[in-house]
Design brief:
single chain; Methane Monooxygenase Hydroxylase, Chain G, domain 1; 92% helix; rod-shaped
Length: 74
């Protein structure tokens, strides 16, 4: 999942560079706005993947800790 997030973030970085160029060159506002929306989509997707990974790791680690605690009580 981390690899996918990194790819998405790299794509978003490239999109930001393109947006900067579009603004500097005076592109139409609608085109710039659409590019910004596409970049937001990439960032949101990366954020969702990172959050899912975090939640999975937290629940997995919590389950492991509970299992260790149960064994220690016995």
């Amino acid at each position: 999942m981390n690899e996918k997030s990194i790819i998405l973030l790299k794509l978003a970085k490239g999109e930001l560079d393109a947006i900067k160029y579009m603004i500097e060159e005076g592109w139409d506002c609608i085109d710039i706005s659409n590019r910004i929306l596409e970049t937001q989509y990439l960032l949101n997707k990366a954020n969702n993947l990172i959050t899912k990974q975090h939640l999975f790791n937290c629940s997995y680690n919590e389950t492991e800790n509970e299992n260790k605690n149960r064994k220690n009580l016995m």
